[in-house]
Amino acid sequence: METSRACHLVTESEVPSEITARVENTLKFFKQEAEISAAVDNYFHDVLRCEAYKRRTMLKVTELSNVLSPGYTLNIGSGYCDLELELGNTSHIISLDVDSSELKQAKSISRKMGIPLSPIVADAGKLPFRDATFSNCLLVMALHHIDSKISFITESLRILRENGNVIVYDVNVSSPFYRLYQSKILGWGMTSLGHLLDAKYVKYIFETHGLVVVKTIHRFLIPDFPVIRGRLLKFLCVIERLIETIPFTQQRLRGSFLIVGRKPSKP
Question: Is the pTM of this model over 0.70?
C-alpha cells in the first residue's frame, strides 16, 4: 500500500508547451468574454489578467495533470470550466456544479473556442452516476463549499473505480497569509473561516472514511482568492518564488495544497 509523501514542486521549465498554449488560449477567450459579459468580468478580475496568474495557472494545471489517472474525470465545482479547457482532453472530463448560470456561460465560451463541454447541474452529495464510473474526482477550490464533506467522500468512493483518485486543490487555512487576510476572505463570500481547510484536516477525513492519501503538495504564498491586485501582487509573486526554494517553509507559509486520496483495491 502506498503512503502519503511530499511531492516535487513543478517548475516553470517543466510545464509542457501544450499546457502553456491551452492556458494562454483560455485566458484570451475569457478576456474577450469579460468585455461583453458582466458575470464573467466579475470573475475575470485583474488578478486573472496578470502574468503572475498565468504562471501560477500553468504550474497548477501541470501538477493536476501529473496526478490524474487514465480514464474519465469528474470535475466537481467546475464553475466556468476554465480548468477543463486548460487541461485539454475535455471528452474525458465531466463538469459538475450546482450553479447552472456559470455552466451556461461555460458552454458559451467553449463553443466559441471550438471545444466540446457537457456540464451537469448536480449536488456533490448525491452524484447522478453509476458505481465505478470514474478514475478521478477532481475538486479545485471547491471542497470548502461542500457542506457535508462526509457525504461527498461516500459518493466519491461509490462512483470511483478501484485505485481511482479524489484530488483536492484548496486553500491552506494554516497559512499565516490567510489569517492576515481573514476579513477580506470573509468579505469575498465565506460566512466563517471554518469553511476553509488545510491538508491535515483533509488527510484525516480521507483516511477515516476509506481513502488512502498517496500525495500531498503545498505551494504558493498568494491565495487564489481575489484579495490582492496590481503592483502588490507582482511584488508578492517575486517573494513567492523565493519562498518556493526554501524547503522548511513548505507547510508553514504556503497558501494552497494539493492532496490525492486513493480508493484502495479489494483484497
Answer: yes
